[in-house]
Backbone:
């Protein structure tokens, strides 16, 4: 998968605005990311006490990595979410499940706000999944959220994820879940047809 293919383009035009995804610039975007990942609403991101330089270093390491990539999502041109994709054969899930050809791991974080927009997080995860499946090599998306993150479990289910089992990671107990292209299409067909 190319890091920059299909980036900096409108991924979805929804009733909450145009969602665009671009490659993350770890130096330019570090201050913004720091404000997001250290916010109390981002507790499951596990960077609550990170210093600005630590966030910068983390995303510089991702930018240099072969199997892990980070992107900034924008709503009508304004930064609104963080998206990461990774190859679970090499990071995050090594030895915790048997990867299949076409598996892609995903994380996403919506920017904290005091004025939430109804349907925004659902639009974001739908756009993220559409972006991942825009690569024909992607057959299945893998996620491993914290078992206690009930809100994200419900959101994952809305776009087609099916939980498989709990796994023990070094940093958390996680709910390993999968979503095939067919499951995503079936779960979001009605929503996407209304947005066209």
Residues:
């Amino acid at each position: 998968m190319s890091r920059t293919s299909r980036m900096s383009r409108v991924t979805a035009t929804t009733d909450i605005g145009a969602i665009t995804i671009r490659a993350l610039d770890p130096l330019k975007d570090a201050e913004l990311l720091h404000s997001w990942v250290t916010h109390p609403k981002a507790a499951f991101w596990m960077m609550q006490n990170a210093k600005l330089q630590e966030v910068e270093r983390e995303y510089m390491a991702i930018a240099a990595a072969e199997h892990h990539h980070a992107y900034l999502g924008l709503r009508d041109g304004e930064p609104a979410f963080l998206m990461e994709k990774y190859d679970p054969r090499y990071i995050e899930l090594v030895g915790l499940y048997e990867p299949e050809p076409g598996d892609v791991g995903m994380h996403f974080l919506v920017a904290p706000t005091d004025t939430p927009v109804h349907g925004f997080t659902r639009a974001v995860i739908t756009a993220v999944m559409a972006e991942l499946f825009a690569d024909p090599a992607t057959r299945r998306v893998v996620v491993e959220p914290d078992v206690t993150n009930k809100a994200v479990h419900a959101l994952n289910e809305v776009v087609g994820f099916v939980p498989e089992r709990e796994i023990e990671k070094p940093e958390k107990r996680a709910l390993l879940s999968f979503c095939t292209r067919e499951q995503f299409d079936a779960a979001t067909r009605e929503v996407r047809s209304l947005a066209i």
